[in-house]
Specification:
This protein is α/β, with parallel strands linked by helices. The chain has 2 domains: 3-249 and 457-478, Aldehyde Dehydrogenase, Chain A, domain 1 (3-Layer(aba) Sandwich), CATH 3.40.605; 253-445, Aldehyde Dehydrogenase, Chain A, domain 2. It is 40% helix and 21% strand. It is built from 15 helices and 22 strands. It has a 7-stranded mixed beta sheet with strand order 14-15-16-13-12-18-19, with helices on both faces. A 6-stranded mixed beta sheet has the order 9-8-7-10-11-21, with helices on both faces. The protein has a 3-stranded mixed beta sheet with strand order 1-5-4, with helices on one face. Strand 2 (6-8) and strand 3 (11-13) form a beta hairpin. Helix 2 runs antiparallel to helix 4 and helix 2 crosses helix 6 (180-192). The chain starts with a strand and ends with a strand. The model has no long low-confidence stretch (mean pLDDT 97). The structure holds NADP nicotinamide-adenine-dinucleotide phosphate (NAP) and magnesium ion.
């Protein structure tokens, strides 16, 4: 079993305290690696290294250098696809084909933001003959990047690549539940030529590493991806420091299916959007809102497909892998239990699979509730498991009202062949991304992504993603 270090100032080292923590394979519960458990001293060292790198500048200040090096990172990620996908699948439990897609997406983020690194230009503002006025996009300085365990490669990819490309020095804190590929991303960046100190990787807990990092006096910007609960704590800390923070939080995203939709086309998306990564996806399609005339038939069709899904460890490339931990599974089962108490009708699932070979892992069957009232907890709360809730609507207004009936607003999909309705509903839904007759588009690397309401603020991915990691300076010269 390997013991993995921190990456600080271009050097791999144990934590100052020498303490370690373990990460497990969710399919079996077995410990697969030990990692350095960072603390406040390590945060100080990493932020110091990042600060020195940023202030020292050197070749990394040249956009063309960042373009070249970040493209090399993408090449190395692709060359190591097998190893990275295997690691991601074992650490998170996700099916290996999904882990491969995550590797490809991580490489794409580095390519995409490499391509943007030398295009962050400014404006020239006409003030008349007495002035020359122009804007410059500048990096913030030292960026703290805190990410969750569900898509470590993708989320580290998009945050770190955008932040580095914009010219920041970065300290990345992965989640304890799935930190392994982030350690590898640190190594790959160093090998590709990201100079020492520009990317530091600190494994360890939210309390011991996360909060000291967020509040360190020399950090200039925070990017947080995770739960609304932790986002609130981090947001409060940042508010006290007047520190800018991007919040990518949770969701309860709807698939809104009108009676004129092409259901054969919709079906795979309706299933995949809630089953992918065992439903532990911020943008999971967790609510199925269906026109009443087709509601009953569609719910039955979805249930049938759910019952036929293959469940197993990620290495077998099943349809549905385990959840990340026993704690997570217990949380999902608790919410499912409460749903029945709230009057929702359990159509399928709602329990751990009975197969003996799955007994040690954190598995749960794909679960569907129907006739779920908008007031029910299961309609409102992010479950973060393969649990879909269905409800019927009678007309377009009610569909929009139901879609907007939670505090979240991350993603939505509208299924209809009526062009006018597609545009109308897309505008009325309060969510950062609305899809029509699809759910997701490739990895979504190029598309701005982020929340309305309780899903957060700021945008990751797309060109908007790199703009978050820079600020505008105006220079005004009187002639
Ligand atoms: P989480 O519990 O909020 O943790 C996220 C990260 O914050 C982890 O690295 C965690 O560290 C750290 N953390 C915890 N407490 C902290 C504190 N007091 N100060 C600083 N950092 C702290 O979320 P999760 O359970 O890992 O992930 C699931 C959540 O992430 C879901 O709500 C999901 O919707 C959301 N998510 C959102 C997006 C998006 O882009 N919108 C993408 C993916 C996931 P440790 O866990 O290691 O202690
Ligand atoms: Mg957590």
């Amino acid at each position: 079993m390997s013991t993995l270090p921190l990456l600080i100032g271009g050097e791999e080292r144990p934590s100052a305290s020498g303490e370690l923590f373990e990460t497990r394979d969710p399919a079996t519960g077995e410990v697969i690696a030990e990692l350095a458990a960072g603390g406040a001293d390590d945060v100080a060292a990493a932020v110091g290294a990042a600060r020195d790198a940023f202030d020292g500048g050197g070749d990394w200040w040249l956009p063309a250098t960042r373009v070249r090096v970040l493209n090399r990172v993408a090449v190395l990620i692709r060359e190591r696809e097998d190893a990275l996908a295997d690691l991601e699948s074992r650490d998170t439990g996700k099916p290996i084909s999904q882990a491969r897609a995550d590797v490809a997406a991580a490489a794409r983020y580095f390519e995409f933001y490499a391509g943007a690194a030398d295009k962050l230009d400014g404006r020239s503002i006409p003030l008349g003959p007495g002035f020359v006025d122009y804007t410059i996009r500048e990096p913030w300085g030292v960026c703290a990047v805190i990410i969750p365990w569900n898509y470590p490669l993708q989320i580290a990819g998009r945050s770190v690549a955008a932040s580095l490309a914009a010219g920041n020095a970065v300290v990345l804190k992965p989640a304890r539940e799935a930190p392994l590929t982030c350690v590898e991303i640190g190594r790959i960046c160093l090998e590709a030529g990201v100079p020492a100190g520009w990317l530091n990787v600190l494994t360890g807990s939210g309390d011991a590493v996360g909060m000291p990092l967020v509040t360190h006096p020399k950090v200039n910007h925070v990017s947080f991806t995770g739960s609304a609960a932790v986002g609130t704590v981090i947001g409060e800390a940042c508010a006290r420091l007047i520190r800018p923070v991007v919040m990518e939080l949770g969701g309860k995203s709807p698939n809104v299916v009108f009676s004129d939709a092409d259901l054969d086309r919709a079906m795979p998306f309706l299933i995949r959007s809630i089953v992918q990564n065992a439903g532990q996806t911020c943008s999971a399609g967790a609510r199925l809102l269906v026109h009443r005339t087709i509601h009953e038939a569609l719910v039955e069709r979805v249930a049938e497909r759910m019952r036929s899904l293959r469940i197993g460890p990620g290495s077998e490339d099943p349809d549905l892998g385990p959840l990340i931990s026993e704690e997570q599974r217990q949380g999902v089962l608790r919410l499912a239990g409460e749903a029945e108490a709230d009057g929702a009708r359990l159509v399928t699932g709602g329990r751990a699979p009975v197969e003996e070979r799955l007994a040690r892992g954190y598995f749960i069957e794909a679960t569907l509730f129907d006739d779920v009232a908008p007031s029910a907890g299961i309609f409102q709360e992010e479950v973060f498991g393969p649990v879909l809730v269905a409800a019927a609507f009678d007309d377009e207004d009610e569909a929009v009202a139901l879609a907007n009936a939670t505090e979240y607003g991350l993603v939505a999909a509208v299924w209809t062949n009526d062009l006018g309705r597609a545009h109308r509903v897309a505008r009325r839904i309060r969510a950062g991304q609305v899809f029509v007759n699809t759910y997701g588009a490739g990895g979504g690397i190029e598309l701005p992504f982020g929340g309305y309401g309780r899903s957060g603020h700021g945008r990751g991915k797309g060109l908007e993603g790199i703009l978050e990691y820079s600020q505008v300076k105006n220079v005004c010269i009187a002639l």
